[in-house]
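<context>
A single protein, sequence plus fold
<sample>
Here is the protein in question:
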Amino acid sequence: MNINMKFIKLEKVKDGRYLKNYELTYLNKAGREKKYEIVSRKELTGVEDIGQKVSGLSIAAVNEGKLLLLKEFRMGINKSIYNLCAGMLEDGEMVEECIERELYEETGLHVKRIIDILPASYAAVAISDMKTHIVFVEAEGEFEDHSSDNEMIEAGFYTKAEVEHLLKTEEFSSRAQIIAYFFTKLLDIGKME
């Protein structure tokens, strides 16, 4: 017997301050019920709402051939890792406004030019329907800390050689690791047109 996965129902389990927990019930390809848990930053009323709204963005910023990386303490893993500048879209905020706000809040830098804004993609498909844009910018200015009391961020620009070393010796978020790898191996994002 070979049938497709069939959605049966969605039920909210918990309504947290930032995340909402849901239990999804499917009929699996063997014809048995499968319960699956996800979290979302958005209110979901049915299966048609899953993954429909963009939550935020991650910023790959360059300046004079160097890549911006944040050494950032993340409470969810209780340690500091290398990450991209990132944040959530506020209600009614345009993507370009969010880029400028998040870059300034987390680093003190300003957007010199937006190189590209990729279509929103899923950030953690195993546990969430969260969608974010990856954006490429050229940044300028001086580093300043405008982050909240709940954030510990050390921002810096790194050369290709420095990024290669970090990739071998430090822990990264997966998106930052991918951007860092391509920065060192394949792309010269500082010269993208």
Q: What stands out?
A: The two ends are 52 Å apart (CA to CA). The chain has two domains: 6-49, 54-191. The mean pLDDT is 93.
